[in-house]
Design a protein that fits this description.
four-stranded mixed sheet; 2 domains; about 45% strand
Length: about 180
């Protein structure tokens, strides 16, 4: 295994409400130096919930995405609050965003998006045994549209232009593997 580069200097070059951007001066084991930039999330980890109904439908939400400037269909997700357990956060976010909670929750995978420059992780949680439970404590500026999508028709979901968020795609595929579909 290679020796990790030595960080010689870290300089903050940007800051927002959600992220800090840092420039790292690195020295590699072969003597080469390089400048890298990374984004450090100010929030802790996130949860993404793959909630499956008894009718074998997965719950998705349609939410505005500022990055693409359009509404995207995706799995419900949110931040794990300080001191909050991952599964508790998953059930809270599920209730806030979809109006359902789950009797059974299981962490399937920890995922990272663009680890080359982004330091953030998302735990994918499988939620089953769903029941109605709407929480009004969410932070969304508008009500989210909840879409129940049949697992038997996942191929068509994967072809939709508005279903492009990489964690959601990976999450759906991991759920299908977990459920033997």
């Amino acid at each position: 295994m290679k020796t990790k580069p030595v960080i010689k200097n870290i300089k903050q070059i940007g800051d927002s409400r959600l992220f800090t951007i840092q420039q790292l001066s690195l020295e590699f084991s072969n003597g080469q130096t390089a400048e890298y930039e990374r984004i450090k999330a100010k929030a802790g980890k996130a949860v993404m919930i793959a909630a499956v109904t008894q009718q074998q439908e997965i719950l998705l939400v349609r939410e505005y995405a500022a990055g693409t400037e359009r509404y995207e269909l995706q799995l419900p997700k949110g931040i794990v609050e300080p001191g909050e357990e991952t599964l508790v956060a998953a059930n809270r976010e599920l209730s806030e965003e979809t109006g359902y909670a789950a009797d059974s929750l299981k962490i399937l995978q920890t995922m990272r998006v663009s680890p080359g420059y982004f330091d953030h992780q998302t735990d994918l949680v499988l939620a089953t045994g769903l029941y109605e439970n709407k929480l009004e404590t969410g932070d969304e500026p508008e009500a989210l549209e909840v879409v129940k999508y049949p697992l038997a028709d996942i191929e068509s979901l994967l072809q939709r232009e508005d279903f492009s968020e990489s964690r959601s795609i990976a999450g759906v595929l991991l759920v299908m593997r977990e459920m033997g579909i």
